[in-house]
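quick one, 245 residues, struct below
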Amino acid sequence: TIFTQLSVLAAGNWAPVFSIAALAALMSTMDSQLLSCASILVEDFIPSKKDSVPFIKIVTLLFALVSWLVSLKPPASILSFLTGTAFAGYAILAPVMLVAIYYPRTGKTAAFISLITGALLVFSQALKLWTPPIPAVFFNALVQVLILIAGFAFAQAIRRQQKDSALQQLEQSTLYKNKFLTPVSIAFALLLLLLGTDFWNYGMSPVLWFGIPSWVWYHCGVTLVLGIVCVIFYKAYSKTSSIPE
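---
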């Protein structure tokens, strides 16, 4: 490489030292890039409530494994390899970015599948495993757009199904709760109100039961019955608490 030739010309016998220094700088950059890429991927696609450290370790190992596999048969020129894949790799971000801006309801799953598919297409084309029938940029974008459209349609179908299910549960909850407003329930409430007034004892001499006026015993009994009825209604009504409002 140019750096090696310049090191030999300028440093002579000290050229290996400069090469090792360059290699050390490269290694320090590569491990940081591995950790950064793994962290970005995990933080974007793993729920924040979960512990992300194990996932970052796994993704880092996967990136290292892919790098090792590439190193087994490295490209003739790193620059030519990057030139052939970098801009095509940047191009696969365009459909996902546009969808994220204008159609965010497409969902992260479809975006993730689109990115992975685009990256696989770029690498397979760079390795000359196959050649698309049209220019690679347009072919890759078309495949990604189809994936995003399918993901958007699937997400919309799921949302409609969830909405219909929620509406159905709400209707069932409303119907169930309306049972407490049936004529029988209203009539029973009016009967308790009537019994509570005790108008037939107005103006009559009190009768003592165990030294206590009878109307006191009567109202204690009515209150006890009212309490039992309230407990029964509460237990039946609380069954609807699991249905989302």
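Residues 75-155 form one domain.
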